[in-house]
Amino acid sequence: MDCTTKYKKLPSTINLTPESTAAMLMRGEFSFIPIRIDGSKAPLIEWTIYQKRKPTVEEADGWFAGGKTRGVAAVMGEVSGNAEMLECERAHLIPEFCALVEEAAPGLIDRLVQQDSPKGGRHFVYRSSKISKNTKLAMDAEEVADTDLPRTESGDLNKKAISKLGLRRINGKYYKVQVLFETRGERGYFLVAGSPARCHPLNKPYELVHLDFTQVQEITPQEREILFTAARSFSKIPTYEREIAPPRERAEREDVSLWPGDDYNARGDVRALLDEDGWTYVERGHFGELWRRPGKDFGHSATLFDNGNFWPFTSSAYPLEADTLYSPFALFAYLKHEGNFSAASKTLYQLGYGDRLGVERKMDNLKTMIRKALRRQINGESLKGEL
User: Using one digit for the tens of pLDDT, what is the confidence trace for 52-105?
Assistant: First the structure.
């Protein structure tokens, strides 16, 4: 489904003005705010109050009536009926994104309000009972050659300058990171059609291409997850929100020199574990292998990094959670024992992970205690506290 050619600029929005756009947003039950026309996309007013309530007719007239030249931004979140916007930043990704969504949920794309941005990206707007704060869903990464990195006079890497450039260090290399897909949700806003072109740094307008803001439809949490999974599949680096990599089991104990979980992290066969659970290897990605979850016939659902850590970006892979990084041991614990690390450790020991010296020492200690107890019993001594 090529929704870049299917939808064109809506004739009814060609003559939109800031005032008529504000009226449309009001009819669509959105909160909205005025925006500066200096290319900063910044609010013209202190806007946080409009995260909690919609503007009054009098306030809107004060901002836009009489042909005032100001931008207009729709405020997302609960104040606007649980509205959320998903943005695709790159024009060339729009057709493939739409195709992935259409394959998973036919007709879903057609139900979303769509607006093209000045940079060629696209905004998809909907309402849902489940939304979240502004979220980065997919990131691109371009490696920066070592010779192009800023250095100090002594020739060392200039970490401060690198930080100012926004470069990200991954696996010992530096990358320029850019957002491919992100959302505007609770406490977020985005500029809309009808705003003067001067509101954007490129001096180009936003254009509605499918439906308008009086026609925003509600989608289910499951349909929203389909959108998110399709978007996340384009990510070249992890955007996970939390990590499940339990503290390494190494404790300062004489009876254990290598715990099963640590041993599995070092030499466990994660690919075999995924195969056994029904996952399918798809292809090599930028930073690791792309895998597809059980029960899915297209796209990607997770990344297996070269260090063995696993990052699913779908919420349809129970018992694994989306946007969560799993160490090999954590992955084994969740897939085999529903997150019970103690049981997982015992199973791994039975499979040959961990060192046997600890157990042998325990058995030797127990035999020694029993021998001592028997001698004392023969001699008629008390055994209290011995065992």
Answer: 999 999 999 999 999 899 999 999 999 999 999 999 999 999 999 999 999 999
Across 83-87, 303-307, 367-371, the highest mean pLDDT is recorded for 83-87
Task: Tokens for 306, please give them.
Answer: 């070269």
pLDDT tens-digit map of 178-198: 889 999 999 999 999 999 999
- Whose CA is closest to 171, among 238, 234, 267, 265? 238
In the structure encoding, which two tokens stand for residue 376, read together? 């004392």
Alpha carbons 265 and 147: distance in angstroms, whole number:
35
Contact, 162 vs 174, CB < 8 A? yes
Round to whole Å and give the CA distance between 167 and 121: 23
Please state whether the predicted TM-score (pTM) of the whole model is above 0.70.
no
Tokens 């042998």 locate to 360
Q: Where are the domains of the chain?
A: 3-232, 242-350
The label of the residue with tokens 């001096």 reads 203
Question: Pairing mode, if any, of strands 122-128 and 167-170?
Answer: unpaired
Whether 269 and 136 have beta carbons less than 8 Å apart is answered as no
Q: Tokens at residue 365, please?
A: 């200690």
The token duo for 283 is 């292809």
What is the per-residue pLDDT for 383? Answer: 46
Tokens of 122: 């696209």
Give exposure, 70-99, as e/b (b: 16+ Cβ within 10 Å). Answer: bbbbbbbbebbebbbbbbbbbeebbebbbb
Residue bearing the bigger pLDDT, 376 or 219: 219
Dihedral of the CA atoms 262, 264, 265, 268 (nearest 10)? 170
Q: Which helix (H) or strand (E) holds 265?
A: helix 260-267
The tokens describing 15, both together, are: 């003559």
Backbone angles phi and psi of 250, in degrees to 5 = -65, 110
Residue 126 to residue 184: CA distance in whole angstroms: 11
State the DSSP H helix or E strand holding residue 173, giving kind and residue range, or none if neither: strand 173-184
Lowest mean pLDDT among 18-27, 133-142, 205-214, 230-239: 230-239
CB 337 within 8 A of CB 324: no
